[in-house]
Amino acid sequence: MVEVSTNGLRFHELDLEEKDRTMAKPKELFANAPSQSFAAVLPMEAYAGIYHHVAYGDFEFKLRTYEESGYRHPLKEADPSDFVLYGEPEYLHSNVVLHHVSGEHWLVEENLFGKVQDVPNSYSKAKFEIGLDGKVEAVKIVLEPSLEGEAAWAIYSRVK
Predict the structure, then answer these.
(1) Phi and psi at residue 74, in whole multiples of 5°?
(2) What would the pLDDT profile of 9-51 be if each residue is shown by its tens digit?
(3) How far is the C-alpha of 97 from the C-alpha of 61, rounded, in Å?
(4) Is residue 96 within 8 Å of 128, Cβ to Cβ?
(5) Topology of domain 3-158, CATH
(6) What's the 3-state SS for the chain?
(7) Residue 124 in contact with residue 61, Cβ under 8 Å?
(8) Residue 98: phi, psi to the nearest 5?
(9) Where are the domains of the chain?
(10) Residue partners of 108: CB distance under 8 A and separation at least 6
């Protein structure tokens, strides 16, 4: 069985299996998430901005539609908002797409720039922190999944 994507790439059965694994990632990484997702506390555009980590540098997230994020994505089928946060961190040769899961919890998808297909390279988790003033103060991203507990999370403070 072969399916042709909108950008001309061909997906064979193994690629379709990868699509199924991609669709399962939110449940795998967020096993305790409610079946009905809670909306984010703030409007989507409030999460866009520049964040800084002392070791990893700056990271700018921009609000984009799935189409603007550059490729056809299987998670779009499960996301009613049609928006993602898109970023290109200084420390990676990749882009990162954050998909809203529930509340302040987001699925982090990393795609290497050299990869020429619609299947992401890796997934992890992110959580935004809202301050007492009702504005985003930071985003925590699991960058070291082999570490346990809080050591796995990198905290990026919002600078703009």
Answers:
(1) -65, -30
(2) 444 454 556 656 665 666 677 777 777 778 889 998 999 999 9
(3) 9
(4) no
(5) Lipocalin (2.40.128)
(6) CCEECCCCCEECHHHHHHHHHHHHHHHHHCCCCCCCCCCCCCCHHHHCEEEEECCCEEEEEEEEECCCCCCCCHHHHHCCCCEEEEECCCCCCEEEEEEEEECCEEEEEEEECCCCCCCCCEEEEEEEEECCCCCEEEEEEECCCCCCHHHHEEEEEECC
(7) no
(8) -100, 125
(9) 3-158
(10) 96, 97, 98, 123, 124, 125, 126, 141, 142
Q: Which tokens belong to 138?
A: 């930071």
The closest alpha carbon to 138, from 154, 155, 118, belongs to 155
Short-list 63, 70, 129, CA closest to 95: 70
Query: What is the CB-side half-sphere exposure of residue 108 using CA atoms within 13 A?
Result: 23
* The pLDDT of residue 111: 75
Report which of 121, 125, 129, 122 is spatially closest to residue 153, judged by C-alpha positions: 125
pLDDT in tens, 117-136: 455 577 889 999 999 999 99
Higher pLDDT, 59 or 66: 59
